[in-house]
Amino acid sequence: MTRLDGTVSRQHTIANCRKLSNTEEESLKNWILDMDKRGLPLQVSNVRHLAQLLLSARSKPSKDISISEKWVSRFIQRHPELKFKYTRQYDYQRVKCEDPELIKGWFNRVQETILRYGIAEQDIYNMDETGFQMGVASTAKVICGSETRDSHAKSIQPGNREWITIIIAINASGHALPPQIIMAGKKYQSQWYSAIPKEYRISLSDDGWTNDILGFEWLQEMFEKHTASQTAGRYRLLILDGHSSHATASFDQFCTERRIIPLYMPPHSSHLLQPLDISCFAPFKHYYGQKVREMAENDIHAIDKQDFISIYSSIHGRAFSKGNILSAFAAAGLIPFKPERVLAKLNIKTPTPPSSSSSNQSFYL
What we know:
This is HTH CENPB-type domain-containing protein. The protein starts with 9 loop residues before the first helix and ends in a 6-residue tail after the last helix. Helix 2 (22-37) runs antiparallel to helix 3 and helix 11 packs across helix 12 (305-319). The protein has 15 helices and six strands. The protein folds into two domains: 22-78, no CATH class; 92-137 and 158-347, Ribonuclease H-like superfamily/Ribonuclease H (Nucleotidyltransferase, domain 5, 2-Layer Sandwich). Strands 4-3-2-1-5-6 form a six-stranded mixed beta sheet, with helices on both faces. It has helices spanning 10-17, 22-37, 44-56, 69-78, 92-98, 100-117, 212-227, 249-257, 270-273, 275-279, 281-297, 305-319, 322-331, 340-343, 356-359; strands at residues 124-133, 163-171, 180-184, 201-205, 236-240, 260-264.
């Protein structure tokens, strides 16, 4: 109250009518802007969730206050630095043929982030998930008679279609972090741990897929645990895709507190930009498929969780070798920093070649 007669000023009344304080709104606005700079503009649901978290974090939580979509619209109107816009949906051909500016923008963002935070090469990481059915092998090249009519040879495989997800991160200096293995189930079995190094982590979900909780668990228990003491500079760069489990408020807050900078790739660009997708996951699934076929040839027609864990332990080092990892970062144009390695793969159709003066200019400086 600022008036002598005890009435409340208009400005104070407006502030009290808002669900968040000015400080809370400023914090929310800065988070939205920061996520946009890192390549992951937020949806309304994300903003509502964080606003609700800000309410619950108060010393006296406002249990009866909820954040609606209309509140988000009014919040955007109050902050001219923010605006709504519709996302553009990119498919593979658009990324590859029509929009090289999207790829150039990614490399701009990478370089700006590295320079801004002074990130050392050995503090650059890429994380991703890969999933597959436990008893299904990938295709393999075989030799058959030249008169065979069927163009696709058939092989017997165990056929257990239970889903498994692996979360893993690799480092630009050539090493892989221990994996988090996510399996479908409710109860942990002590025998699982006898076949794996103690650094591996086993998690369970209803369907064998990752989720927001397990993504945050990986960040805390795997990434932070295995990289914090190895950091050369003040900040770590974590390159990842925009999966929902990487974009929660808790994920982002933990990263901020630990000086981890998440940088999100453009949608549908993993095949071009993500090191793990380029040179690591394919060898991993190849080696796994070999093991599955060997078991089938030895009349083992059921692969269970224990078998999977044993197989994984035997192939992890080959799939995520230093050579594969260094090749992956190089092919993604990251280490060494050569965006042209990726741009050369694009089918860019230009009516006339650029002039010699413009061709010498760097697009990412």
